[in-house]
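Hi team,

Filling in the usual template for the complex we talked about on Friday. All components are listed, including any nucleic acid strands or ligand strings, so the model treats them as one assembly.

SUBMITTER: L.P.
PURPOSE: interface mapping
COMPONENTS: two
RESIDUES: 744
SEQUENCES:
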Amino acid sequence: MKKTKKNNRLTDKKRTAVAAYLFISPFFILFAIFGLFPMLFSFYLSFFRWDGLDPMTFNGLNNFRFIFSDPIFYSSIKNTFLIGLLGTLPQILVSMVIAFALNSTLIRFRNVFRTLIFLPYITSIVAVAIIFGLVFNNQPFGFANYILSLFDVGPIRWGAEYWPVKFAIATMVFWRWVGYNTIIFLAGMQSIPRELYEAAKIDGATIMQQLRLITLPMLKPIVMFVVFTATIGSLQLFTEPLIFLGRGFREEGITVVAYLWRDAFVYNTFGTASAAAIVLFVIIISLTALNLGISSLIGRTKKSKVS
Amino acid sequence: MSKFLKLTAFMVLAILLLAACNGGGNDNNDSANDSANDPETTEESFGDGEIELVFWEFGNTGYDVLIEEYVAQNPHISINLQNADMNDVHDNLFTSISAGSGAPDIAMVEEAQIERYRNAEDAFHNLFDLGAADVEDNFLDWVFQNGGNADGTFQFGLPTDIGPTVMFYRTDVFEEAGFDSSPEAVNELVNTWEDYEAVAREIYEETGKLMTDAGELVFNARRDQATQQYFNEDDELIIDDHPQIREAYDYVANLFDEGLVGDIPLWTPEWFAGMEEGTYATMLAPAWMQGQIKDNSPEEGIWSITTMPEGAGNWGGSYLTVPSESEHAEEAYNFIEWLTAPEQQLEAFLNYGLFPSSPQVYDMPEFMDYEDEYFGGIATAQVFSEAAQSVIPVYKGRLYYPVDEELKEAIDNMSAGSDPDEEWDAAVSRIERILQR
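RESULT (copied from the run log):
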């Protein structure tokens, strides 16, 4: 008797397991079809020459050899990092300050501002890029050039010059994501107990001191999260340069994803596109590892301080 | 509740703002070329017949009117018309024939983009099998041939419209500079490219205005006149082996150098706006551009048309293809045969300015008598048909657009003052790398 009971329980357990797997299966099935398979297939493709229509021909490592001999590929990596840095670093700092302001009890209409700051995030990237395309227009009558002309600067060809292109694209990234990160930071700040601030105020701490000594240290995990997502996001930057620069891109503004997209869908050379994707994959993996390493290092020092 | 209301109010406001921006800036699609700016796809169904044909098109064709007529005559057919950005239509078609599923019953393919699909004969129905030989004579020879393979045994598509190039010009600017602004006089005045440059100089001296605001269009005009362009029929790059493209390039370089043409990029809001401002004298463009000019500069009698210096070229125009995935190939073919028949081409011309690929239309009285009040009441159709008949067909090659894109980058750079020779070499080496892939 005992035995069968136990067996029954086991099958019960199994049954729950099956049910649980069933419940989570939609994600894994979709991921396998739309995530895993394309990923593996592009590994495979990176060793072939394929124009999308004719049969594939084996090409060995030539695709990799080609992209590593292509100066534009190096430019695309450099651009990605430069635009990423220009777009995310200031963004994280600014969104932290805004979040702090929105979190403070001093500001009226907080909900209004919270909504407003988040709005850019829900706009379509294409619309953003078109509007910024008007602001950062090459012509003297473009908005940015007009403002600069008041200070006797310019006109700058925002769509063609080395730094202006990067600045313009980074601005779009900044504008669109600053609200998102503000909300994340705000959520993090709201989980910090009020008592800490009250105690600090009683001790006579200024707002800057509160920000530096309470908010920042308590936000560390949130900061890690934001840096993570921002890094990966900026490595995948694509739509903004596409709309801003057009299908040809330009060496000054092409990003890695733009480079591989152009290879695949404009030149129809899926082999080199896949090879570039593999390189990007390796870059993202190593950066993530680096990020993880740094964050665990920070975690450890914190622990040792506590003890 | 009030929070929710506020939030809703903001959402509505934001959406309205965006919609306003979108609508104002970018409803100017055209039949043969477009920027990547408009990702929207519109879908419309006609008729309730059992056999549904999915039709992918781009640009402003005005085919909805004709389709309504067709489904009324053929009640067993219904047509699902999907309009999207030109590049998107071609990318999507490419992806779906590469994947082997998802292609429509009828796909509109642009004249230079058709090269991308040439290797994929099995992805399309050979229209000769469906009866295209019977209608071959309806079309200009060179247009029909370009829609087929090299030895003329396989036909990808039936031609819809073409883009014979002409010179649009502003009568007010020509008059301001002291010239007679009638089409005949302007034609005589600007008969060669040398004349074009000389007139540009004179207009600049008299009025301070430019000859055209987009130097790119001067390059395109001369490119489309060239008998050889970027590739030969073996798909070898030949821009350094024959002088025509280089001449076009140097000609534009010189105009930039003298400050006679502007550097506004095509298809941008400022370029569209410039059509009305009267700050330049000419626009070298294909027939399908007239829709853009009319939309952006509504006042009649300002713009006029004459022939291009040194003969016309062709830029743009499209074909209707039947991908082999279609289960209703016969019905699809019957529909496109009807749609590209001379009568319907005439209607498309009268409604939307799509220039007919069928020379039979050129002899129709409605076509010949068509006088456009907008262009000062001249018989525009005749100007265009003269241009269309003088076009020399040219081989474009699979990588036509990528190569064109690199040359445009070079032109853009030299408009900002960099050295034309260096930019040319840089463009050629970029192009060579594209070909190595």
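MY TAKE: DSSP finds 13 helices and two strands in chain A. Chain A touches chain B at residues 51-54, 66, 70, 72, 111-112, 115-116, 119, 122-124, 126-127, 130-131, 133-134, 137-139, 141, 157, 159-160, 242-243, 246-248, 250, 263, 265-269, 271-272 (CB under 8 Å).

Thanks, L.
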